[in-house]
Structure prediction request, 250 residues.
Amino acid sequence: MTRAGSVKAGVQADYGIDAPGIVAMFGLSTVLSTAGATLIGWLASPSPLIIFLVYMLSLAAVASGFLFIVMLVYARSGKFRMRDFMLDEIGFRGDERVLDIGSGAGLLLVGAAKRLTTGGAIGIDIWKASDLSNNLASTAERNIAIENVGGSAEILTADACDLPFADATFDVVLSLLCLHNIEPSERRVQACREIARTLKPGGRALIADYVPTAAYERALAASGLETEGSRRHFLVALGPMWMVAAREPG
Ligand SMILES: C[S@@+](CC[C@H](N)C(=O)[O-])C[C@H]1O[C@@H](n2cnc3c(N)ncnc32)[C@H](O)[C@@H]1O
Prediction:
């Protein structure tokens, strides 16, 4: 496990852009299809084929431009709104042991640590570059130091499907935008089993993702948790977002 050091005052934490390759692809597609539609419409003499081509390129420009903006708005605003919503849902006492699965740059980990007094939060991740910009353990450590939560937050390199913790370790398990990255679906079910296994009796899990979370709900219920429903939270996240809440009986 790693604890963060200190950084210069005034430096801002950076929680990255999710799926940076896809954001770049949508940005590039917007530019290229706009340029293509403009050039063809300008240079080619009108014919049904040219009109169809310009129409299709314009459609591609609008669709990719829309998705590009949605992903940037989420990265710059939606994810912070979703973090606060999830942490408010828990209603911390301050003494909880918290696990953030797929913590990336530490968004939920740091947020939870700020609400703890005597408790502690740990973030686990395998730091996949394609899932988050600058996705390194050192980025999370830096954010922990910048946000001054080194006393209650730590990170560990570990796989969600094989958590290196004893049964009934955590009061709260959180995860935002991680589980959809785990393939195939049997491994996502295994990750849900690990969540159930590591929750204390009475402990709560909130698992949010940009895909419907009903399958996670079924897997958590099959692992013995009482689920409180899988719901949409598009207005909170300013984009596609579902969340399942679950509780370990006891
Ligand atoms: C889109 S990022 C979200 C990071 C962070 N939760 C946030 O909301 O900013 C998804 C994260 O899940 C991590 N991840 C993917 N598969 C994982 C696995 N099997 N175990 C642990 N972490 C995983 C990635 O490395 C990445 O950091």
About this structure: The longest helix spans residues 48-90. The first strand starts at residue 97 and ends at 101.
